[in-house]
Amino acid sequence: MINAVGRDIPEELLVNGKEVYQGKFYMDGKYMQKAAPKTRRYEKPAESKIVATLVDALKQCGAKDGMTFSFHHHLRNGDYVANMVMKAAIEELGLKDLTIAATSLGEAHDPIADYIEEGKVIGIQTSGIRGRMGEVVSAGKLKTPAIIRSHGGRPRAIEAGEVHIDIAFVAAPTSDCVGNCRGIGGKSNCGSLGYAMTDAKYADHVVVVTDCLVDFPNFPASVEAIDVDAVVVVDSIGNPKKIASAAARISQNPRDLMMAENVAKVIASTPYFKEGFSFQTGVGGPSLAANLFLEKYMDARNIKMGWAIGGICGPMVELLKKGKVGKVIDVQDFDLDAVNSINQTPGHYEMSASQYANPANKGAFVNKLDFVVLAALEIDTGFNVNVLTGSDGVLRGAPGGHPDTAAGSKVCIIVTPLTRGRMATVCEKVVTVTTPGDCVDVLVTDYGIAVNPLRPDLIECLDNAGIPHVTIESLKEKAYSLVGRPDDLQWEDKVVAVLEARDGTILDVVRKIKPLEL
Amino acid sequence: MIRRPKPERFRLRRTMMFMNAQKPGLIKDAYIYGCDSIMLDLEDAVAENQKDAARFSLYHALTTIDYGSTEVIVRINGLDTPHWQEDIRVCVAGGADGIRIAKCESAQDVHTVEAAVEAAEKEFGVEVGRTLLMAALESPKGILNAYEICSASDRMFGVAISGGDFRKCMQTTFQRDGVDMLAARGQMLIAARAAGIQCFDTVFTDLDDEEGFRAEVLQNKAMGFDGKSLINPKQIRLVHEVFCPTEKEVRQAEAVVRAFVEQSAAGVGVFTVNGKMIDVAFIPGAQRTLRLAKACGMYEGDLV
């Protein structure tokens, strides 16, 4: 069945009430039944929940074949925990037919690709997939199609019971002996633990893995002991060098700076740029640099930002410390400046992924967002964005909060160079739709700005401010004139991944790529 | 192959951005930053054993990249090197708008280059006279001969000073108030204006010193320069901002040109606008202000 972004969704996926994407806010006003976990009572006072090994913890939680384990990605590419757990479950306990429900998977998890190839891991549900995991899934080696959800779509699916987590594993920079966890105070600090919060509330069992045991009570806790079954102390939960980079530096690349300046110009041209406005930006070159230019406009108009959300890094913390933003609320921290600031700098708070972006709850932050600045691997003339598959059709990206912030915000700005190497970023048709075009408002490239025709109000704002803009078709033509028009990718029929829209409908599928024949 | 339109001898040249002709990543789309002219460098930025490769890169850039309305000038190697003749052949064959003569010291240097350019134009079937010239003055001798250089050829559109070499010759270094090059800048400006060509200031090399850069650009404008050489795209915006006329200047220029059109039709030669006496002598200046205003997006009328 063809959905609202023109993608053909195989009928066999449309079972058990699953629908195709019908446009943004299609589910608005509908009721959902939340799924409650089945949890064990810990009534008899116990001094500690510490168990000796991961195997002991798995046994205590009744780990068996066919279960779903969840992980969160605050330790980013430095994460050791997912690999440790899967190794214990598969190599020591001999479990099989396991499903991994992660908030993101990357190069750090390359070893798990072996378990997929061996058929021990049969399901993957994630908001991002990179490295060998992406390659083996794209090669059709996972038994069931991977399910890709946004950061908001994931807690929605968990709360709705579409993902049932048997055991959630929390990688905790610090924990006390009963499982109160924080993202700071240890040796592998990551700051916010926002992605782990929904998992801990909805999983049947919760295991905390830490490398820094602290005195009880470890408060204020991000994940609370009331939800935790067991605590395992290991030597190291991750590689601190890869968890949080040193201070994120604002790009000096003139191309990035030019695009960032244009992003700020667009923002300042709209009526939403006023005292107390809200903002989210990514950490990519031009997205992060937008902070710098936005600050100049804020100073010039003598206005302050009300609040900022997102993955947070140093430059936003700086604005907070300078008093130019009222509050910063984050689900994840990207650099040490942000890690060291959360819950320390007045006005810098932590939130859960559900509170951040879940479309089915009653008060997600993204719904109050004025502006979001996002990157893209590709954007097509329908303003559909791909941040998941490479130009070779292989899974190597992450929708993350992209679709959530795009849908929730009043102005969603995509900033990307027109070409990357030989690849046209602005193209006829993206490989995979991860953020639908009806949520994307403005495209800023190094070759010009285009406004989605669905937003005549923004076109008027740009015109009034004298900001030149062109059609997205002309940008696409320019891109093809520079780097050529690529041949279509060749797919097999087998679906290797299902891309869920944030509301749970099916936005697109990724099929197995045909091996290249020369 | 890209065929660039015939270059305009006198056009807006507030910003000329230097870039190494050998760096494809830089030159492939340098026009996106909005400078008025780009200066593809075959001289100092290119290592001695890479001169050939740079010429190939330059030729392919000139013939395959559409730089649109951005002017494309090439800085060739000095006349004391074995490279300049081949540099000129490549510039002309590729259709560059103009050539910057490095280390120019006399009218004879201009004539020498002009002869080679003309020969190349004939060799490659390019309209004779199409390729413009500008001179870079880098030595005290060049400054002393500024007028004969500026007026040496009808192809000459402008003259620029090259601060690095000049300061070395003068046994001085960069001074924040510009006193190190005050006399040279002044002499060059007088020569350029006397010969009726444009005049450009040298690069400002400390990219982190925004305040120093602004001060220098403000001084350039106050002294009467047409524009400035740049080394990084992030310098463009400030120069364009500084070289913008003020709102008041634009309104006055508009009133002057409009009144002149009306009054001269009525047979009046001298009149007043906003209390100031105006005659035909004021018109070129007012028109120049309006053209600049148009380029800066401040004027949309049809008087220029």
What can you tell me about this protein's structure?
The complex is a heterodimer of chains A (518) and B (304). Helix content of chain A is 25%, strand content 21%. Chain A is of the alpha/beta class and 518 residues long. In chain A, the strands form 5 sheets. Chain A has a 10-stranded mixed sheet, with helices on both faces. An 8-stranded mixed sheet of chain A has the order 14-13-12-11-15-18-22-23, sandwiched between helices. Chain A has a 3-stranded mixed sheet with strand order 17-16-21. Helices cover 43% and strands 15% of the residues of chain B. Chain B has 12 helices and 10 strands. Chain B has helices at residues 24-27, 51-64, 84-94, 107-123, 140-144, 146-150, 163-169, 182-195, 210-223, 236-243, 247-265, 283-295; strands at 15-20, 37-41, 71-75, 98-101, 132-137, 156-161, 198-201, 227-230, 271-273, 276-278. In chain B, a hairpin with a 2-residue loop joins strand 9 and strand 10 (276-278). The longest helix of chain B has 19 residues, at 247-265. The chains are: A alpha/beta (518), B alpha/beta (304).
Q: How would you sum up the major sheet of chain B?
A: 8 strands, parallel, barrel
Mean pLDDT over the full residue set of chain B: 94
The total count of helices of chain B amounts to 12
User: For the terminal residues of chain B, how far apart are their CA atoms?
Assistant: 33 Å
What sort of overall outline of chain A do the alpha carbons produce when their principal axes are compared?
globular
Average pLDDT reading of chain A? 95
List the SSEs and their pairings.
The complex is a heterodimer of chains A (518) and B (304).
Chain A lengths: L49 E2 L2 H7 L7 E4 L9 H12 L5 E5 L7 H8 L3 E6 L4 H8 L7 E3 L4 H7 L7 E6 L1 E2 L5 E2 L11 H9 L2 E6 L19 E4 L6 H4 L10 H15 L8 E5 L3 H17 L3 E8 L1 H8 L3 E9 L2 H4 L8 E3 L2 H5 L13 E4 L3 E3 L4 E2 L15 H7 L2 E5 L3 E2 L2 E2 L1 E2 L14 E4 L2 E4 L4 H9 L7 H12 L7 E10 L5 E8 L5
Parallel strand pairs in A: 1-10, 2-3, 2-6, 3-4, 4-5, 5-24, 6-9, 9-10, 11-12, 11-15, 12-13, 13-14, 15-18, 16-21, 18-22
Antiparallel strand pairs in A: 7-8, 16-17, 19-20, 22-23, 24-25
Chain B lengths: L14 E6 L3 H4 L9 E5 L9 H14 L6 E5 L8 H11 L3 E4 L5 H17 L8 E6 L2 H5 L1 H5 L5 E6 L1 H7 L12 H14 L2 E4 L8 H14 L3 E4 L5 H8 L3 H19 L5 E3 L2 E3 L4 H13 L9
Parallel strand pairs in B: 1-2, 1-8, 2-3, 3-4, 4-5, 5-6, 6-7, 7-8
Antiparallel strand pairs in B: 9-10
Helix pairs in contact in B: 2-3, 3-4, 9-10, 11-12
